[in-house]
Amino acid sequence: MSCGEPHETDCSEVLEHLYEFLDSEMPEVDRTKFEHHFEECSPCLEKYGLEQAVKKLVKRCCGHDEVPADLRAKVMGRIELIRSGQLVPEGDVTAAPTASTKTASAKPTTQTASAPTAKPAKPGTTPPAPQES
């Protein structure tokens, strides 16, 4: 999205970093540039307002739930693995890290399916019904 007007900070940059702005996770100098952009760009200001409203709604509706201690520990463990530069498998993000997780190789993993996958139907045809096992 762009309003088509020239700005000191491009609309695409503002929208790309909108959540950093909303969460106050950017340097003050960048925040000031974004605020100035919102003053002169109504489409970006509208998008900002919408995202801000969604964030407030989520906080109001979901902000009271307690995070289970084991889930918090698992997530924090994953964050520490990432920060230390170790590979983290893409599987179940709630699974506790194991010794094999910490020493994972850079080789891609292959997944095996328990059931054969159906081929996509040709346009204009009806796909076959799934078979039960």
Automatic annotation (TrEMBL):
Q: Where is this region: Disordered?
A: 85-133
**UniProt-recorded name of the protein:** Putative zinc-finger domain-containing protein
Domain Putative zinc-finger, which positions? 11-44
Entries under InterPro entries matching the protein: Anit_sigma_mycothiol_RsrA, Znf_put
Q: Which Pfam families match?
A: zf-HC2
Where is the sequence biased in composition, kind Low complexity? 94-124
